[in-house]
Specification:
single chain, 419 residues, alpha+beta, 17-stranded mixed β-sheet, 7 helices, 30% strand
Length: 419
């Protein structure tokens, strides 16, 4: 019996002895997991900049707020004005007294008395002064066109505005830092109309395409139609009806009033580029310009603030660019849009970054040559010529030489005059 009780006691102790190694084993595994997590947290903390866009720089204090204004129109873009009517009236008023004085002097065969002599001298001096002032005004009016400078009264005042040169712009695309297939921005404008198509591939979804077509009016770029297509989804269209002053959408029956200077999501980038091209010194750090921007179903004010000049790394090298960032539109707004415009590229966008509220980043980075399309930027005056020049083939511009208005004057005319 004693033996039996001893055996039963040992049997009862076996499960406790077996549990001890298992408990220590789980404690060891837990310690290893905690250690690995701690090491991973330390590594992520040290390499935080690798996972962020690097654009969390402190936004400078706002020093100016710019709202949509009329752009400056050159005399060639405005209706030709004749000579100012007041000037004609002044000339006529000056000429009549002169003719009257000369007639009085010619028709006076009778001797001039001493009493009338001072009056005659005063009249003659007045006539000479009027003639001198008329000659001076005529000389000034004649010298202005000769010097090539139009009078300030002939140009419509406003903010400086210069449309970027036309071209097919090449970009590297990134989705959360991972390189994807190349993207493109097709941009063309002749100063009167414009066309913009942004194409960007997105993994597992398809190509995102954004199209903006319109013209140039007194406030700059004026979209007529904005088309947005994401992957295989149907197109969403926003129509800017200038006749009814309304913005209509295909995605929703709602409509919006069309205000002056209204832009779509991507024409806003070129509108900003045109304004900065016109007056780069006006966009200092802290300066904010407001745009009314239309999406595929709504519209709102976008405050775009100038952050400052930064260096962008591209496939062809480094390029200096001016950083612009959309400020939060309301409390809790986590979506960001950053644009970098490069002066060496004709102030075209060198980088565009969109950050979604969930942290997803989609960006375009310039991958073409570090020079503006068209070389000398002549594409701003003629749209078709700009596209040909942007191709980089100098020979493609040769056939257009005879069509130039100066061609007939520079080729055959001097031949007969040679000795």
């Amino acid at each position: 019996m004693p033996f039996t009780s001893a055996v039963s006691r040992s049997d009862r102790m076996l499960p406790h002895a077996a549990r001890r190694p298992r408990a220590w084993r789980w404690l060891a595994v837990l310690a290893v997991v905690l250690c690995v997590h701690w090491i991973a947290a330390q590594w992520v903390e040290r390499n935080r900049e690798t996972f962020t866009s690097g654009n969390t720089a402190h936004v400078p204090v706002q020093i100016a707020l710019l709202t949509p204004e009329r752009i400056e129109r050159s005399p060639a873009e405005t209706a030709p004005h004749p000579a100012p009517p007041p000037e004609h009236k002044a000339r006529a008023a000056a000429s009549k007294p002169r003719e009257h004085v000369l007639t009085a002097l010619r028709s006076g065969p009778a001797p001039v008395t001493a009493a009338s002599a001072p009056a005659a001298e005063a009249a003659s001096s007045a006539a000479s002064a009027a003639a001198a002032s008329t000659a001076a005004s005529a000389a000034t009016a004649g010298s202005a066109p000769a010097g090539g400078h139009a009078p300030a009264s002939q140009a419509a005042p406003g903010v400086k505005f210069s449309v970027p040169p036309s071209g097919d712009l090449q970009y590297d695309t990134f989705y959360n830092g991972v390189r994807n297939q190349p993207g493109t921005i097709h941009w063309s404008s002749d100063g009167k109309i414009y066309d913009m198509v942004v194409s960007m591939p997105v993994p597992f979804i398809g190509t995102f395409s954004y199209s903006s077509h319109g013209h140039v009016d007194a406030f700059g770029l004026a979209p007529d139609q904005y088309i947005e297509k994401r992957g295989h989804r149907a197109e969403d269209v926003a129509i800017f009806n200038r006749t009814t002053k309304q913005i209509a959408f295909t995605k929703t029956p709602a409509s919006l009033p069309l205000s002056d200077g209204a832009q779509d999501r991507f024409s806003m980038v070129m509108q900003l580029a045109s304004l900065v091209r016109g007056d780069p010194d006006a966009y200092k750090p802290g300066v904010t310009r407001q745009f009314f921007v239309v999406d595929n179903d709504s519209g709102e004010i976008w405050p775009i603030e100038t952050i400052g000049d930064e260096t962008i790394r591209t496939q062809q090298g480094y390029v200096s660019a001016r950083h612009f960032m959309r400020l939060p539109r309301h409390a809790g707004d986590q979506r960001r849009i950053d644009v970098w415009l490069a002066p060496s590229l004709g102030w075209l966008p060198a980088r565009i970054l969109q950050t979604e509220p969930n942290g997803t980043e989609i960006q375009l980075v310039w991958s073409g040559p570090l020079s503006p399309p068209g070389g000398n930027g002549n594409a701003t005056s003629t749209g078709n010529g700009g596209s040909a020049t942007a191709s980089g083939n100098p020979a493609s511009t040769a056939p257009s030489a005879p069509d130039s208005p100066m061609a007939p004057d520079t080729a055959p005319a001097p031949v007969p005059d040679k000795p």
